[in-house]
Sequence to fold (322 residues):
Amino acid sequence: MSLPTLLEHRLRLPVVVAPMFLISNPQLVLACCRNGVVGSFPALNQRESSGFKAWLEEIDAGLAGLDNAAPYAVNLIVHNSNPRLQADLDICVEHKVPVIITSLGAVKELVDAVHGYGGLVFHDVTTRRHAEKAADAGVDGLIAVAAGAGGHAGTWSPFSLIAEIRQFFDRTVLLAGCLNHGHEILAAQLLGADLAYFGTRFIATRESHAPDAYKEMLMASKAADIVHTAAVSGVPASFMRQSLERAGFDLAALKENVETGAGAKLKPLTDEAKAWKTVWSAGQGVGEINDLPDVNELIARLDAEYRTAQTRSIELAKHWPR
Fold:
């Protein structure tokens, strides 16, 4: 297990809650951190850098004096479609944000800026090539976004993605894709990950900023309802079929789009934000989501399931001795 010093002995569970576009907010971040898991949000969930800075101030104030709280993280889009990158990075440096999660680009200069104040950089990857480039940039951790994950997801099995990353990367690895329960946290660790990366499950919480209709659709959906397509944002991502149909997308055309690899260029952020407001993302784990707990209740449940899984693994070892 490879955890940076910043995270050692500061987590109740080996869990990071993903930064979800238009969903994550300070309330969700604070609830996660206060319950001992890393909470995060995208800087672009605020329309301007001044609002982003205000959110950081709110989170810093909400965690002040809490010795048992987990660190928080901010997601930065490292892509030429993001005109705010430098301004938002400067604000992160000013506030010494503990963990930066980068997407759509791994840049050594950004990593060095975060390392300059003692922060960590974790980077989203969907293939070995992406992982190798991020490792070369000096990131502290790789987030293996495997098949079935929500948001900008990959198509590789978690078995192959983790195994190939571990051939060359001995630092922190996080696994994303269809995680809903505590036993899946342990499964991620057994595969070779250090941390489990939860997304969709935390959309369906009371603190989440998702509209009620979004949460209701999550609870009504199954894995077969998830469509992986580049048509919405220009980069392949996972969305609920019902929301795509309601927005007027032709599902047959979306299938063609995925198969041909068309649309592999990220759309302008203003266009993407408009699209994601009406086309709702989710991972294939939706079939296991049937309630709307608050974060405190959900993490307590994950904790109990994780401990039970640990005990069960010991019992399995007894049944299969050497």
Remarks:
- The beta strands are 15-17, 39-42, 72-77, 99-103, 120-125, 141-145, 172-176, 195-198, 226-229, 237-240.
- The chain has a mean pLDDT of 93.
- The first helix runs from residue 26 to 34.
- The radius of gyration is 19 Å.
